[in-house]
Structures are given as C-alpha cells and as structure tokens.
Fold:
Amino acid sequence: MSQKLLIVDDEPHIRMLIEQTLEELEDEDVDFLTADNGETALEIICTEKPKLVFLDVMMPKMNGMEVCRKVKKELAVDGTYIILLTAKGQELDKQKGLEVGADLYMTKPFDPEALLKKAKEVLGLE
Amino acid sequence: MSKLTLRNFLGKNKDALAAVVTLLEELNAAVFIEDLEGHLLVGKTFDAPAHQYELVAGEELLGYVKGDEKAFIVSKLFSVILAKESEKKKLGNEVLNVYQELNLIFNFSERLAEAIEPGIIAQIALDEARHLIEASAGMVLLQNERKESLELLASFGDLFFGSSEFQNKSGLLFNILKGAQPEIISDFSEIIGEGSSNYPIKELIYAPLKVKQRVMGVIILANDQPVLYTAGHLKLLTTLALQSSSAIDSALLYEKNICEVREREEAMKRIHEVTNKFVPYEFIHALGKEVLTDVKLGDQTEKIVTVLFTDIRDYTTLAEKMTPEENFSFISYINELLGPIVHEFHGFIIQYLGDAIMAIFPGKAMDSVAAAVAIQRAVEIFNSEQVLKKLPAIQVGIGMHTGPLIMGIIGDGHRLAPAMISDTVNTAARIESLTKFYKADILLSEATLQALDNQEDFLFRYLGLVQLKGKKAPTGIFECFSGNKENDLKKKMATLGTFNEGLSFYLNKSFVKAASAFHNVIEIHPDDHTAKLFLSKAAKYISAEVPENWTGVEEMIIK
Structure:
C-alpha cells in the first residue's frame, strides 16, 4: 500500500526543494502531496491522513503552529508525524513547537541528507 | 537524481493521466501505453498493434505508445509533456545542488563564527573541504608578514611538503602563492621532477587565502590516488578559502591586538612595580587610591600612625674610612637588610635619608616596636659577620613616636612628591636622636607605649621626661631593651628594680640615694651606659647647686 507524505510551505521553491530532496522515495511507492497554506494543509491531513508532514511555521491564513496544534491537540489525528520547519534565527519557536505537539523541529536552510534520512526513518524505509 | 519513469510521472500527475485518458477517448483511439518493461500504464492492451511509437523525454526513452495510426499523435503530445517534466526535474536537481552548497556554506560560516583562533579556523576549513572533496591529505599554510617563510596552520594526513619547502622561495609553494589563483594539478609527477616532494601524491587542488587582493596563505588538498578533481571541486575549495581567509585574518588581528594589550598591561605593571618602589603602595592606598597614576596634587589623609626612625650611630666616622662607592654599597646593604623587616611588620619605608630610614606603621604600635626589636637582632647578626670579616661593627639607634599624621601629595603642576606633614615625624626623629644621649638602642615616646596593647611582651625602662625643642609639654621617654644582646638583656632585667628606684630618687631630687642605686646597677652591669649617665648627673647635683625650678626634665636643644 502506498504511503502519503505532505509538504506544506507557502514558498514554491522550498516545496520543490523538499520534493527534489525526497525524490528517491517515489520509487518506494510514496505519494507526494503539497499545500501552500495552512488551511489546505489541515484539509489534506484530515482527508488523506499522510504519514509524514513537513510543515512550515510562517505561512499566511493559518500558520504551521496552529495547524499542528489542531491536528495533534484538537483532532488528535493518529499516526501523522509532523516535522515543523522554521527559518534559522527563530529558534524561540522550538519550545512552542513542542508545546503544540510537533514530533520534530528542523531549521531552514535544512540539511538535505538529514531531511531524507529522517523521512526514510519515519516511513520505515531504511 | 533518480530517473524519470512513466509510472512515477503518471502516479504523481493525476491531471496528466486524466488528460491522456480523455485524449484517447476523444480520439476514439485503439491505443495503449507501456513502459520499458512492458507494463501497461494507460488504455487497453491487444495483440499485434499495427503501430508503435517511442515516448521520449529529451533524449531519454521512457516507453511506447502502441495501437492504431493515432498512436503517433498521442506519442508526440505525450513526449512534449514528458520533456517538460524532465527539464523541470533537472532544474530541480540543480537548485537542490545549489541549496546543498548554500547549506554547507551556511554551516561553515556558523562554525567559523564560533572560532577565534587562526589554527582552529584553518582546521575547520580543512575538515569542511575534506568532507566535500576527496583527499588523503591537506594543509593550510600561512605566509609570514615579511613573506619569507610559510607557517603550517593546520593539516591532516601526511605532510606532503616538508618544512624545508616552507622556506624555499623558489619552490612550488611560493610559486603557488605568487600565482594567487586556485588550480588543479593533475599530473603531479611533473612537479616531483622539480624536486619539490617525495610524497606519493597523484593530484593536488589548492586555493589561495586572499584578503583584499593580498595573498596570506593557501589551502591545499592532495590525493595519493588519481581522483580527477573537477571545476566544481575548485569552486567549492575557492568558496571555503574565501570564507576562511577573512576569518583567519580577523583572528590574526585579534591575536595581535590581544598580544599588544598584554604587552601594554605588562609594561603598566612594570611601571607600577617601579613606582611602588619610589612611592610605597601603602602610601597610595592610605590616600584611598590603587595606583600612583590616580594620585593628584592635594590628595591627603590623616591617620594615627607610629613613625620610626633608624640611624647608624657615628656613621660619619665610619664613612670617612670608605670610598664613596664602598659607602654607597654599605648603605644599600644595610637598607636591604632592614627594609624587609619593616615590611614584615606591616610598615613601609617612606624615606631613605642617607644612613637613616624613616618608616611608618599605619596599623598597631606594637608592629613598630616589634620591628625595632627585629632590626636590632638583625644588626647583631650583621655585626657578628662584620667581626669575622675583621670589619667594624655598627650600632643602630631607633626612635619612635605615635600620633596623628597627614600624608599627602605636595608640589606643583610639574613636580609632585609624597609628603608627611606632621609633628609626629619631628618628634620621632628627635626621640631617635636621643638614643645617642641615653646610649640606648631603642627609645619610644610615652604615646607609643600607651598605644601598645601588649606592653608585657616587651621589656621597658622609664628614662624620665624630656623637653623636646619646640614642644610645650615634656615627653615621657622609655627604653625598650628586648632587642639587646642576651647578656646585656639579662643584666638589665636583673637591675630593673634598682634602676627604677634610682630614677625615682633622681626625679625626686634624692641625688645621694639615686647615685647609690645607679652605682649598684653599674656594679652588676658595668656596661649600662644609661645608668652611668644618670649616675654622673646625680653626682653632679650632689656637689653642685640644684636650680630652684629643677623638675628633672631634660632640656633638649639639639635638633
């Protein structure tokens, strides 16, 4: 059965970079989903139940923190691993990120190798 | 970059899949699409299709469109879409590469920012370079300021250039620095021909460390296997060199500054050490200052202190037998002997006055008395050495007085001097001069005696009152004989009662009884010159007429 992975960022080049970084997962039968704002992301998470979500914090409409809080605390969605992405220098978010129930916190610019390694680990593809 | 496959493309692009399906339906085409392995992806398969066209993205074959003649148009259209997808993928991959470099540089800068030592920065640069570019050895070299030699700042693996090469101005390394350009040397055997190295290096890649067009050094990577370094490697190494050179430059500057600051601090410390010798720290401290540079004209403080004077008795006679040089070194020797004693008892020497010393004890009066006793003991040891050397022994008179003292800075805008403005100093000096008169080693004023909280620790004899010049009231004078030679000390102790009686009779004008008492003292202690003095005085008053207003107070008109 195919696994689903969601990439949420309002910046198209970041979405593309993450997709490109993770492209070898396509061969492992992983479906890539994308969203460019928090509202759409929340919708997709609820309907598609992706196993892994890369979630940018700074976004219009609904920010990543809020999406994460809704998913993890209000809706208590099970089996979705959320990685929050924030720009370097905004490390204050780390504590907040953990408070809203994020599973991991990564900074941008991200290390592609580390990102791929983590994705494989979460999806059980090591 | 993973290969573009039809299956992945259609899986990811549901819109494209739907469009192709609609196209086939609209065209009413008996056409199906297979990938290279013959897996059916779109349409319905059937045997022996009449036509077969390739699906190509750029130059890459991805699959086939098979079926009737409409397969041609389907393949053409689909190939256009796939070509776009392939381009997008390539572009994405390039962007990712750029991003990866950016990320590396970002991390590198971050690590650099944390380091302030040139050697550590160079090591970080080498580590990072090694991570990105395959190499069996590497070094960062720095040119010294006069461009005469190179210094190894960091390295890994074998040193493929020996230290002799660091000085060889016509060698490869200096040529590299002169060239000031990043370069790859893939045929290292040619260079070995020039005698540069005996290490088994197959390939070299290097980039100069430049700051504002100035070449300060070089980062070199080498490999003992041929790796075929590329322009991409060179670009990365140049980027690392660029980043680290400014960091190394700042670090060197920082180091230099730190050095200069340290040197300045050292110099200041030395100056303070010297000035402390001219103006004692205690003096500056008493003014509430830490260093001499803080002291200014008019600074002053008043304290109760004990002032102590020492003087070498009959020094003029002694000095006449010496050359000026001998004289100077003799005085220096004595001062070096006595100075530390004053210090030991928390006093400080405010002035050397030829063969005399003026010291101040800002703390307890007992410090001053104890110092005086210790000085006499030291003089005794000095004398025993003198005797061995067949040189004359010396006698030191010590006088002290306790009272208020104003310490301050006097002078004018151009010349400052520490000064003691106090009657206490004059009194102490006069008491010291009384040691000659009384033939005593240590004399102290009544004020000092009263300031002692441990009188019982010392041995005293009361010597009566003295009218010092310029003073209204007479001053009580005491001899302290705790520092005297053992024999002398014992005898003075044995005769102390008789001596005190004698003095008492003397002051009460009972001169016959006084003379008898002092006579008894001298019987036991023939060298008691003080007793002899009082005996002769008493004898004088027995035979001569005693003035009507006689009180026993000695009028001192000297000094």
Remarks:
- Chain B has a mean pLDDT of 87.
- The two ends of chain B are 106 Å apart (CA to CA).
